[in-house]
Amino acid sequence: MQSEKMTSKLALSKTKKTRRRPSARGRSFSSHRSISLLDRLQSAIGKFPLRWVACIPLAAIIVGVWGLSASAQDGELKVEDLKVLLDTVWVVIAAILVIFMNAGFGMLETGLCRQKNAVNILTKNLIVFALATVAFWAIGFALMFGDGNGFIGTQGFFLLGPDNSPVTGDDYKGIFSSMSWAGVPLAAKFIFQVAFAGTAATIVSGAVAERIKFTDFLIFSLLLVGISYAITGHWVWGGGWLAGAGFWDFAGSTVVHSVGGWAALMGAAFLGPRIGKYEDGQPRAIPGHNLSIATLGCLILWIGWFGFNPGSTMAADLSIAHIALTTNLAAATGGIGATFTAWLLLGKPDLSMVINGILAGLVAVTAPCAWVGNFSAAIIGLIGGILVVLAVGFFDSIQIDDPVGAISVHLVNGIWGTLAVGLFANPEGVGYAAGDGGPLAGLFFGGGFTQVGAQLLGILSVGGMTVLLSSIFWLVLKATLGIRVSPEEELEGLDIGEHGMEAYHGFLKDTSSMGMVGHSSMRGMPGSDREVV
Fold first, then answer.
1. What is the pLDDT of residues 284-341, one digit of tens each?
2. Which residues on neighbouring strands pair with residue 509, listed in sequence order?
3. How far apart are CA 54 and CA 69, in angstroms?
4. Which of 17, 327, 395, 526 could form a disulfide with 400 if both were Cys (CB 3.0 to 4.6 A apart)?
5. Would you call 318 exposed, middle or buried from its count of C-beta atoms within 10 A (0-12, 13-18, 19+)?
6. Would strands 278-279 and 508-510 be described as parallel, antiparallel, or unpaired?
7. Cα–Cα dist 279/267, whole Å
8. Measured between alpha carbons, how far is 388 from 80 in angstroms, rounded to an integer?
9. What is the mean pLDDT of residues 156-170?
10. Distance, CA of 72 to CA of 408 (rounded, Å)
11. Counting Cβ atoms within 10 Å, is residue 72 exposed (0-12), middle (13-18) or buried (19+)?
12. Are 409 and 356 in contact (CB under 8 A)?
C-alpha cells in the first residue's frame, strides 16, 4: 500500500514539473483560481491507491448515464432524443468493429501467403480502406443510397444535399430516402456503410495476392467501391429494382461478399496462377508462412462480425441478441463442418480449412441472420463449412489460383447464404412482418418457391453486373498498365520489387516458386534457391 502511494505521488510530482505554464495573455484571477483548484484535485487524487484511481473513469461513466436518465425523466431530454443517442452510439461501435476487420483480413491473408510478400499484402489491406473511404464519400454513397431511379442513385455526392436525419419515415426530408428508416445522423449512416464498402475491396486482395501489381490493385479498388459495388448495392439497399422485386439480404451475403467474390474471381482468372502452382495440370500446395497470425486474423474477423451482422439493425434494439446468436452458431458449425470434411477428404484436419470454414459460416449467415431460427442458422453454417472445402478443390481443378480461399469463402458462401433466405426464412418463428419487415416464409417453412425465386434473381443479376464491370476494369488495366509483375519479381517477392523493404529483415528468405523455406543447413548447397538477407 505504501509503495502504491509513493508511486502515485512520484507520478504527480513529475506531472507538476512538466506541465506547461499558461500564457501571460488573458491571464486573470479566475484562471489562477481554476489552476489552484486543479492542483488541489490532483493532490487529493494522489493520496488514493492506484487501484482506486483506476476506478475514476468508470465512476464518471456511471454518474453520467445516471444523470442522463434523470434528465430524461425530468423532461430535459426527450425519450426520442435518448433513443437517437443510443442508436448512434451502437451504430458507431458496430462500424468500428467492422473497420477493425481490416486487421483480421490483413493478418489472415499475410499468414496464408509466403513471407516474401508479407509487406505487399499488409500494405494493400491497410491502404484499401483509405481508398474506399474517399471513393465512397465522393461518389459511392451517392450512387448507392442517393435518390435517383431503380438502377442508380443520382444525388448526394460528397454527402452534399438536403438531409434532416435522424428524422425517419414520412417526416424525413432529404435526398437519401432509402435510408430514412434508420434513426441516426447521416454521418453515422455513412461511417457504417463505408466500412462495408471497404470489406468488398479487401476480399479481392487475397485472391490476387503474390502476383498483382500494386498500382493496378489500387486503381481497381477505387473503381470497385466507387462504381460497381455502389450500383449493385443501390438495387438492393438503395431502394432499387431488386428490392421492389422482393429480394432480401440483411447484412450483405450478396451485396458485399458475393460482389467481392465475383470481382476476385475475375481478377484471379485474368492474372493467371502463380509460378509453380500447377504442374502437368495438377495443383501443388504453396504453404503459407505463418499460420499463427492467420488464426489470429480469423478470430479478429469472427469478433468483427458481431458489428457486421447485429450492427445492420442500425438501431440498439432487442433483435441484436438474436442476430448475434445466429451469427455465432453459424460460425461454430461452419468451422466444425470444414474440419471434418477436410479430415475425411484430405486425411488430416487442415488448419487453413478450419479457418475458412468459420469464415464460410459467417458469410453464409450474413444474409439470413435476422430472419432464421437458431437451428436453421446452425444448418446454414454447417453446409457453408462443407461447401468451402469442396469449393477450394473445385477452383484448383479449373486452375483458378486463390492463395487464401477468398473466392470459396465469399463468393460460394455468399451465394449459398443468399439462397438460404428463400429456404429458411421463418417470420412466424422469429417474429417479423413478412413482405414488409423481411422476406416471405422460406420453402422449408411453408412459403413455397416465391422467395427462392426472388433470391435467385438477385444472385444472378448482381453476379452478372459485377462480372461485367469488373471484367471491363481488369481488361482495361491489363491492356494499359499490365496487371502482373514480372516472373523475376514474383520469384524474388513483391516486398522487394514493389516496396523495397521486407517484413522479416535478417531472416531466411525463400525465392522459390513453392514457398518452402528449408533448414539453415541448406544455405550454400549447390542448386539451393534460398538465401540469407
1. 999 999 999 999 999 999 999 999 999 999 999 999 999 999 999 999 999 999 999 9
2. 531
3. 25
4. 395
5. exposed
6. unpaired
7. 21
8. 45
9. 97
10. 50
11. middle
12. yes
Nearest to 300 by CA among 112, 98, 132: 98
pLDDT, average across residues 394-406: 97
Please check whether residue 114 is in contact with residue 274, taking contact to mean a CB–CB distance below 8 angstroms: no
Residues comprising the chain, all counted: 533
Counting Cβ atoms within 10 Å, is residue 509 exposed (0-12), middle (13-18) or buried (19+)?
buried
Measure the CA–CA gap between 187 and 337, rounded to whole angstroms: 40
Q: Which pLDDT score is estimated for 403?
A: 97
Q: For all residues of the chain together, what is the average pLDDT?
A: 87
Q: Could you tell me if 444 and 396 are in contact, meaning their C-beta atoms sit under 8 angstroms apart?
A: no
What is the sign, positive or negative, of the torsion defined by CA atoms of 77, 81, 83, 89?
negative
The answer to whether 444 touches 391, Cβ cutoff 8 Å, is no
Cβ atoms of residues 364 and 256 within 8 Å: no
User: Parallel, antiparallel, or unpaired: how do β-strands 530-532 and 508-510 relate?
Assistant: antiparallel
CB 439 within 8 A of CB 246: yes
Q: How far apart are CA 199 and CA 105, in angstroms?
A: 9
Residue 203, C-alpha cell as written in the block: 476480399
243 membership: H or E segment, kind and range: helix 241-244
Residue matched to cell numbers 444474409? 367
Reference 22, options 11, 30, 33, 31; nearest CA is 31
pTM: 0.84
84: its cell numbers: 437517437
* pLDDT tens digits, 360-384: 999 999 999 999 999 999 999 999 9
Eight-state DSSP code of residue 163: B
Are 298 and 353 in contact, with CB atoms under 8 Å apart? Answer: no
Give a three-class secondary structure readout of 422-472: HHHCCHHHHCCCECCCECCCCHHHCCCCHHHHHHHHHHHHHHHHHHHHHHH
pLDDT band at 18 (very low <50, low <70, confident <90, very high): very low
Q: Amino acid identity, residue 205? A: S
Query: How far is it, in rounded angstroms, from Cα 137 to Cα 159?
Result: 7
Query: Which grid coordinates belong to 362?
Result: 459467417
Q: What share of the chain is helix, strand, coil (3-state, %, to 5)?
A: 70, 5, 30
d(CA 187, CA 51): 38
Residues facing residue 484 across a β-bridge = 212
